[in-house]
Design brief:
Radius of gyration: 21 Å
Helix content: 25-40%
Strand order of the largest sheet: 16-15-14-13-7-12-11-8-17
Distance between the termini: 57 Å
Order of helices and strands: EHEHEHEHEHEHEHHEEEEEEEEEHHE
Number of strands: 17
Shape: globular
Strand content: 15-25%
Number of helices: 10
Oligomer: single chain
Largest sheet: 9 strands, mixed
Length: 393
């Protein structure tokens, strides 16, 4: 007799483009590689266009396609709402789902404004009292090398953290004729490079460093202020041009300095105009006893320097983070067999489902997402005020 399967965890997905595809792959694969307390069931995907969402359901492995997201909130066979839509709909969807008793996984950044993020966090706290869980999807936390970096900092291997420098460099809109996709419109995206990719390095700096950002001084720039109007798009790849042009209402690049509550100095750069850089998320921490460095374009490598060693042998050394006792890596392949971008989402789903099964609070929480939102708001405020030092709060 085969062992009893764990109870099903019915999932409803909202949005099926770039992030929806990544999350779908994670929901499909997580149960094959990790032992879970609940068995994910890909019940339904929701979208506005009937033919498009039906095609997505078939391609991505969802049992049903629906065009009314409210249907997902009232069905007894759906226990989780996974939100992969642009930021302008996060608050409405998440609050409604939490109030309906659904666990919520929401893509980053949590919202488009601090007020929306505060409302979402309050709803999450009310829901947690009823056993309903929520998490914001900062997937890079689940890259094994980043998770190992956090462990090394938490174990005191770097001593007191003095410097954090973080960059997220892309180049996908350097062409001024690239169309005006939704990620370049403030009413949809909230902000530009700052919220889209800057949010990731803000979260990583706070996560790996173990301390929140308390104040910033910032500059932002929009290099191309008018672009051709776009047809349908997933926000990264444009559809056919619809003719005419429109204003770009978000930043193309953001740079800022910061302090953390623990006293570290930090610097951040987020841009989608770094020609030749495709997805260069980089972070380095320098402490009294050592340093760490990571670049996502070599995502299986973590560079570590132990400053307590003799100078004769001390120096940065490469750690290939694929050993069985490295975070997450033991569930996959033999040592040296590399992981990719998609695995970070599978690890994210694994941790989320585990927390639901354990009855524990998953991380990063909506409160963590709210903290990132407050940093984003402080950066924007500082940039609009001649880079004046601006407290986060």
């Amino acid at each position: 007799m085969s062992p009893a399967q764990p109870p099903a965890l019915g999932v409803g997905l909202v949005g099926y483009s770039f992030m929806g595809r990544a999350h779908s792959q994670a929901w499909r694969s997580v149960g094959a590689f990790f032992d879970l307390p609940r068995r994910p069931a890909m019940v339904a995907v929701a979208g506005r266009s009937g033919p498009d969402v039906a095609r997505a359901a078939e391609q991505l492995g969802w049992a049903e396609a629906v065009t009314d997201v409210k249907e997902l909130l009232v069905r007894d066979d759906i226990h989780v709402l996974d939100i992969c839509t642009p930021g302008d709909s996060h608050a409405e969807l998440a609050v409604a789902a939490l109030e309906a008793g659904k666990h919520v996984l929401c893509e980053k950044p949590l919202a488009n404004t601090v007020a929306e993020a505060e409302a979402m966090t309050a709803a999450a706290e009310r829901a947690a009292a009823r056993g309903v869980r929520s998490m914001v999807g900062f997937n890079y936390r689940r890259v094994p090398a980043i998770a190992l970096a956090r462990r090394l900092v938490a174990d005191g291997r770097l001593g007191r953290i003095r410097h954090i420098r973080a960059q997220y460099l892309q180049d996908w809109i350097t062409d001024p004729l690239f169309p005006l996709v939704w990620r370049l419109q403030k009413e949809r995206a909230g902000s530009g490079a700052l919220g889209d990719i800057g949010a990731h390095i803000i979260d990583l700096a706070q996560f790996v460093g173990g301390s929140w950002i308390t104040g910033v001084s910032a500059v932002t720039e929009t290099f191309v202020k008018e672009r051709p109007l776009a047809g349908s798009s997933d926000g990264l790849a444009p559809g056919a041009s619809s003719g005419g042009t429109g204003p770009v209402t978000v930043d193309d690049a953001a740079l800022f300095t910061a302090r953390t509550a623990a006293g570290a100095l930090a610097s951040f750069e987020a841009t989608r105009f770094a020609a030749g850089r495709k997805n260069a998320l980089r972070i380095e921490l320098n402490g009294s006893d050592g340093s760490l460095a990571f670049d996502f374009e070599s995502m299986n490598d973590l560079w570590f320097h132990d400053h307590t060693e003799s100078a004769r042998t001390a120096g940065f050394r490469r750690i290939l983070v694929t050993e069985p006792d490295h975070p997450y890596a033991g569930a996959w392949w033999p040592p040296g067999h590399l992981l990719g971008y998609e695995h970070s989402f599978t690890h994210e789903i694994r941790d989320f489902v585990q927390a639901i099964g354990d009855g524990s609070d998953p991380a990063p929480s909506f409160a963590d997402g709210l903290q990132v939102q407050r940093v984003l708001a402080a950066v924007e405020a500082s940039a609009c005020d001649d880079s004046r030092w601006t407290p986060v709060g």
